[in-house]
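Blackboard transcription, Thursday session:
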Amino acid sequence: MPTLEVKDLVTYYRIMRGSVKAVDGVSFQVEKGEALGLAGESGCGKTTVALSILRLLPSGGKIEGGHILFRDLDLVDLTPNEMRKIRWNAIAIVFQGAMNALNPVYKVGDQIVEAILTHESNTSKGKAEERVTKLLEMVGIDPTRAGNYPHEFSGGMRQRALIAMSLACNPELVIADEPGTALDVIVQAQVLKLLRELKSKLNLSMILITHDLSIIAETCEKTVIMYAGKVAEYGDVVGIFKEPLHPYTQGLSRSFPSIKAERTRMESIPGSPPDLLNPPSGCRFRTRCSYAMDICEKDEPAVIEASKGHFVACHLVG
Amino acid sequence: MSKDAVVTAQNLVKWFPVRMGFLSSVFSRKELFVRAVDGISFEVNRGEVFGLAGESGSGKTTTGRLILKLIEPTGGKITFKGQDITNLTETKMKPLRGKMQIVFQDPYESLNPRMTITDILSEPLRVQGIGSETEIREKVNKILEDIQLVPPEEFLQRYPHELSGGQRQRVATGRAFVLSPEFVVADEPVSMLDVSIRADILNLMLSLVEKYHASFLYITHDLALARHMCDKMGIMYLGKVMEQGSTEKIVYEPLHPYTRALISAVPIPDPTLKRSDIVIKGEIPSPISPPPGCRFHTRCPIAQFPLCKQKEPPLVDHGDGHLAACHLIGNPVWEKHVSM
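(Written on the board underneath:)
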């Protein structure tokens, strides 16, 4: 049984002019000890998926349909109180923007203690502080720095502290939202290495949200390529990188130059993502797709299994 | 200095004084400086794309601004087409500014939201006093075609907020190229843009560089993009150039341990490749009091003491214009490090 199963998730944001169809029928599974990469351009709905799983959607955002199965529960149906028991104890998140996710007026250690005490009412403050020491050691921060304020930490250390905080209550699943962005390349490599190590040491399931396909190639076993609130392609990382089937995935991988590969002309995907208030009919990618046919305008492509463990939603396939 | 050099920097230095409170300025004997750029030299030849790469805080942006004299250097010399421009007054600089342009990082901030695209693209021409109204209109139309915002009529009267990020950066690029410059600096021009459109903007810049026979200084932290853009590269660390040479040499035969660390940290979009888990430790130290000797010695995996801590390594040519500043190149420790 997978750790997490997201089934036909639909999340809309209501604004004055209508509903923004941010996530519109997304399905995937995360197995135990597996990392899944959620990739796509800004505005494709990847962060909304994460916030839906944790039921932390901002006001206006609402899960309109689908299921999020975790353990024997459907997270969509839980009351806020029941959900609070899942958050951090079972599913934790490393928020985007290491620079701003910590409260600047509290000591880093105290913020992690607070996370523990909030979610474990029967833990004493002393016990929580002991655990903070272990957590900081685990992510490679000198535990004596627990008394420092966030501004005394470098960018990489803040990101590590946030990772430590996410692990504070031994979650089964950790969601990391853009963990490498805004960090320098060497520090980013350090953080990704830490995530890989923690994942295998603690047998964690992970969802890694990023726009950088190369980070997914380095860290994940599976990937979901999202476009305009839909799954374009989903499956095993090796299969998808070796043989991308969806024109969008093909375009994305061509726009990622490899430092090791031959010097080539880089390619972009023409146009920009559609307005999700009124997404195009049929396939949402058709407005930018160079292979678009008549059927792409009429029918929305279903997600089909092109080969074992490799799913794609495109009329060209099959 | 080669005959073709359009721009040269010789031993360029920029120190920014650290602002201190009243009490500390009274009691502290020493004034503190951020040594953003601390003695770097390079030249950009005609038609060449030169890349400056390094982590944040390495001084690459400051270098770009110094070269254009947007800030005054503390020391060193800048030349443009053989002319020393280090101490030129603003009045004397003005005609040269038309020949030396810049594209800034963030197109959401570098375009005036109250100006139409026509105003933005024609302002450089008006400032430089080039052409009559008809000629200006023609030039603006032509540059809009160059930056592929066609048909021009559709964009002329728009404001920046009516454009996407990629289109804005095209306008910023057009503004730099409308004067047919001979030298253009681009400071992280695509870091604010979505991945799917980065390549378009970079290809556009390369085609304009070619069309106008300009020289290009490309400042970036993304080595994978730099490799596909640049003919030559300089790798900066804490205000110093650590390694410099042709892009091929830097990527395939890096000499400096810092360059090697940078390149091995770049993620590769291929899940089957086995990556080395050797990642250097720590983060870039403060440029206020950079480490003595070799600035990289605090993080260097092969630093030898006391040598690397005491003596600053000079930038030495290791053949074919491939320069590197490291004491240990050729040393057995280095040979072992390179063979790993």
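Lecturer's comment: Chain B has one domain: 5-99+179-339.
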